[in-house]
Design goal:
Strand order of the largest sheet: 19-20-18-17-21-22-23
Largest sheet: 7 strands, parallel
Shape: globular
Number of helices: 15
Distance between the termini: 63 Å
Structural class: alpha/beta
Helix content: 25-40%
Radius of gyration: 24 Å
Number of strands: 23
Length: about 500
């Protein structure tokens, strides 16, 4: 039996979601016939909605009617806009015990000497400033695998996943307060990351972000090798010294062995990009089900993208383990309101054009779907960008909504795996953490099968439930953490996507 042409998400909703493109004249509910063509993933009204009246999806407000809307009409940017409404933060009222499994799941991880567990084994080349980016890339290129020809300079080191240069566009011409501290916190998180067996940091020598200051502030002495191009003697000599360091590190890095470890050693960054109207129906809830499973096994998930949680934060504060944790989240929202106002922007500038083409209308609607990635467990901590994750369970990290910047902060915080949902078809990687791509719908999955790891469109197709898809995702998390390559890894994604959040003036 074919699934219904529309999806009802909550009994209180005033709209339904088109499972596929709907023609005019189609009955979608009792007595409700489509007036317009409704694109796939978009919304159709099932009741009269007066101008100024709230529009509901997920049982929550996603916007307000900017014009009268009749049953059967297409509901989108032409008749739905933002508006203010009271939110009940109700700190902690939905907190409940999280049952843990007696026999936790396991994966084959790499136990580091300090006890931390890695899912990959890279040698990293970091840069203090953009001025050393090219030199860092020249060093990494000596050891670069070619995913198309099969050439592999690391063939004699099968336990090393690669040598990666993580370069960026800042490090100088910046103020020496919060912007510099944030960059150093990000670089420090990567320098300490369990998925790196050895790290070198290259600087120019005269930049604001002096390597000595970075190492002192982030307590990195003895953790990494440092070189300044000006001190070493220029490009050629620095590349030669960098290559020599990597060759020296490879033999030791290759000695690692994978061993069975508990799933509690996983810290998963939750991301969504190129979202569509199905994201909050299929892939995000399925990832939420997988997140719940991981937390029940003692692991950790990190939700981020603060602007894409805006308008839904009151649902997370209800799950906060303390009022302090909940108030930290609300405080972030106030900061973002002030930040966007100061910059002449508005929070509803997100969703992107692609999001809107896929059926998302307001940031409220996008946020309600995005937060589903975190499942239903308690919110145990709220962190600033790139701060170390120290508590197990569901945590929130303040980041922009821009995916590479958000994921960079999560990995700096310690994420050793990334799960990334997409409806439009984002291509993405995040070295040194492997990235699993989850497609929201079957047509896009089939079109971009070389890039997508999981088809969550099976939920829309009526082939499996959200929980069943979540179980598949959880099992793939364990396999990927054990060394099974992801689709993005097959194309060597993950170096160019390193993007620390740039704050403050560039001078």
């Amino acid at each position: 039996m074919a699934p219904a042409p529309v999806i009802r998400l909550h009994p209180d909703d005033s709209v339904l979601i088109a499972r596929a493109s709907l023609p005019p004249g189609l009955e979608v509910a009792s007595g409700v016939v489509t007036v317009d063509r409704i694109p796939a993933g978009h919304k159709v009204a099932i009741k009269p909605i007066a101008e100024g009246e709230p529009i509901k999806r997920y049982g929550q407000i996603i916007g307000f009617a900017t014009a009268p809307i009749a049953p059967g009409q297409h509901v989108h940017t032409q008749n739905c806009g933002m508006g203010d409404f009271a939110k009940d933060y109700a700190y902690g009222v939905d907190v409940k015990p999280v049952p843990n499994f007696d026999l936790p799941a396991t994966f084959e991880g790499i136990r580091r000497p300090d006890g931390r567990v890695a899912t990959r084994n890279y040698i990293g080349i970091l840069t203090s400033v953009n001025c050393s980016a090219h030199v860092a890339s020249l060093v990494a290129d000596v050891f670069k695998k070619n995913p198309f020809t099969g050439d592999n300079p690391l063939a004699d080191f099968p336990n090393v996943d690669g040598v990666v240069a993580l370069t960026h566009k800042t490090g100088c011409g910046m103020t020496q307060d919060e912007p510099l501290a944030l960059l150093r916190r990000t670089l420090g998180g990567y320098a300490r990351h369990a998925n790196f067996s050895a790290v070198i940091v290259l600087g120019l020598g005269c930049e604001v972000n002096q390597i000595g200051g970075l190492m002192q502030e982030q307590k990195l002495a003895g953790r990494l090798r440092a070189m300044d191009i000006q001190e070493v003697g220029g490009t050629r000599k620095t590349v030669e010294a960098g290559v020599a360091f990597v060759r020296e590190a490879l033999a030791d890095a290759n000695k690692v062995k994978r061993e069975k470890v508990a799933a509690s050693e996983l810290t998963v960054a939750l991301q969504c990009g190129g979202s569509d109207g199905y994201s909050g129906v299929s892939a995000n809830p399925a990832l939420g089900a997988a997140s719940d499973l991981l937390v029940r096994h003692g692991g950790t998930v990190i939700l981020s993208e603060t602007p894409e949680t805006y308008g839904a934060e009151h649902l997370l504060t209800r799950r906060a383990v303390s009022r302090e944790v909940g108030e930290k989240l609300v405080g972030l929202m106030r900061w973002w309101e002030e930040y966007t106002q100061r910059e002449g922007a508005e929070m509803n500038a997100n969703p992107s054009p692609g999001n809107k083409a896929g059926g998302l209308t307001t940031i409220l609607e996008k946020s309600l779907g995005a937060m589903a990635k975190a499942g239903s467990t308690n919110l145990v901590d709220v962190l600033h960008y790139a701060e170390p994750v120290t508590k197990r369970g569901f945590v929130f990290m303040d980041t922009p909504g821009y995916d590479p910047v958000a994921a960079t902060g999560q990995v700096a915080g310690g994420a050793n795996l990334v799960c990334f949902t997409t409806g439009r078809g984002s291509v993405f990687g995040c070295k040194p953490a492997p990235s699993i791509k989850l497609a929201t719908n079957t047509p896009m999955y089939k079109r971009m099968e070389d890039d997508m790891d999981v088809n969550c469109g099976t939920i829309l197709d009526g082939e499996e439930s959200v929980q069943e898809c979540g179980q598949r995702i959880f099992e793939l998390m364990l396999k990927t953490a054990s060394g099974q390559p992801t689709k993005s890894e097959s194309f060597d994604f993950g170096g160019a996507e390193f993007a620390p959040w740039v704050l403050g003036a560039t001078m």
